[in-house]
């Protein structure tokens, strides 16, 4: 955000005027962006004030077909990644490979049925 602001030749105070906030608030917003704590709504307002488009996307690390298949198995067998908070790592997307043997699939290391 700061790079775009400076590239447009705007000071923090000038961006603040466009947003109706103070220069110290612009500094807070820019720090929050770097910290990863900036709210999406604030980012949208800043983008609009800078005459920019905001693009927000999830980009899978691997093909969606494989993810969908693995998530189906995880749900079917009631597995979850061990050590992962219940609300974080939704549906085990940061997961490890599922191991299989002759009796069918079993949780890989790092997964449990509990």
What does this protein look like?
The chain has 114 residues and is mostly helical. Helix content is 44%, strand content 9%. Strands 1-4 form a two-stranded antiparallel ribbon. Helix 2 crosses helix 3. About 12% of the residues have low confidence.
Topology:
Blueprint: H1 2-7, H2 12-19, H3 23-35, H4 40-49, H5 64-76, E1 80-81, E2 99-101, E3 104-106, E4 111-112
Helix pairs in contact: 2-3
- Overall SS class: mainly alpha
Radius of gyration using CA atoms only = 22 Å
Helices and strands, in order, run as HHHHHEEEE
**Looking across the biggest beta sheet, what order are the strands in?**
1-4
Distance between the termini: 44 Å
Largest sheet: 2 strands, antiparallel
Shape: elongated
| Overall pLDDT level | 79
- Beta fraction of the residues? 5-15%
Total of helices: 5
Number of strands: 4
- Helical content, roughly? 40-55%
Contiguous low-pLDDT stretches (5 residues minimum) are 83-90, 98-103
């Amino acid at each position: 955000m700061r790079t775009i602001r400076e590239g447009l030749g705007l000071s923090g105070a000038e961006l603040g005027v466009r947003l109706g906030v103070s220069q110290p608030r612009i500094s807070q917003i820019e720090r929050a962006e770097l910290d990863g704590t900036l709210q999406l709504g604030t980012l949208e307002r800043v983008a609009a004030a800078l005459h920019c488009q905001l693009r927000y996307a999830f980009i899978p690390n691997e093909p969606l077909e494989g993810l969908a298949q693995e998530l189906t198995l995880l749900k079917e067998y009631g597995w979850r990644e061990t050590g992962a908070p219940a609300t974080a790592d939704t549906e085990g997307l940061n997961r490890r490979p599922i191991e299989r043997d002759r009796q069918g699939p079993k949780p890989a290391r790092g997964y449990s049925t509990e």
